[in-house]
């Protein structure tokens, strides 16, 4: 039997991000591709490549992630939001887990829409380590959306 395995090597750097499946916070070594990461709690792949649904319960876990999280504030009655939805889903598929993706239904989560002072939709906000990095209103084509995200996050 192996004795005394080191929990972490000294000098290694870690990022905290959430599991798409059980939302457990996971520590990822920065030198390891997060694509291969599995959740320490539920053992599923850490990133699901589809946008997560934001709720009052999970919002603080999501925005605390050290890997940037982009949130799409939307509503089902908003035409531009519905047009933008497939673009957002496509980018999640392409860019998770370098960037994490989540959607906030402003009708279901009116208190959260108020907390983030959402005045028009769609609005996109990017968070990292609990801080807002950027926000913009209006939908945008896939190429510009991707460019904006990569520039912003350095991913
Ligand atoms: Zn998990």
UniProtKB/TrEMBL annotation:
The keyword Electron transport applies. Residues 27-154 form the Thioredoxin domain. Residues 1-24 form the signal peptide. Keywords: Disulfide bond, Electron transport, Metal-binding, Redox-active center, Signal, Transport. InterPro entries: Thio2_N, Thioredoxin, Thioredoxin-like_sf, Thioredoxin_CS, Thioredoxin_domain. One of its GO terms (cellular component) is cytosol. GO terms for molecular function: metal ion binding; protein-disulfide reductase activity. It holds the Pfam family Zn_ribbon_Thio2. The keyword Electron transport applies. PANTHER family: GEO12009P1, THIOREDOXIN 2. Belongs to the thioredoxin family. This is Thioredoxin. It comes from Aeromonas simiae.
């Amino acid at each position: 039997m192996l004795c005394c395995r080191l929990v972490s090597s000294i000098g290694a750097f870690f990022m905290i991000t959430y599991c798409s499946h059980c939302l457990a916070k996971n520590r990822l070594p920065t030198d390891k591709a997060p694509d291969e990461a599995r959740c320490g709690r539920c053992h599923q792949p850490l990133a699901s490549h589809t946008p997560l649904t934001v709720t009052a319960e999970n919002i603080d876990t999501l925005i605390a992630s050290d890997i940037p999280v982009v949130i799409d504030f939307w509503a089902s009655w908003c035409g531009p939001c519905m047009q933008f939805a497939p673009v957002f889903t496509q980018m999640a598929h392409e860019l998770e887990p370098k960037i994490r993706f989540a959607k906030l239904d402003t009708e279901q989560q009116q208190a959260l829409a108020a907390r983030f002072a959402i005045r028009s939709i769609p609005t996109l906000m990017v968070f990292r380590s609990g801080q807002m990095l950027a926000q913009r209103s209006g939908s945008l084509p896939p190429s510009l959306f991707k460019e904006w995200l990569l520039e912003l996050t350095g991913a």
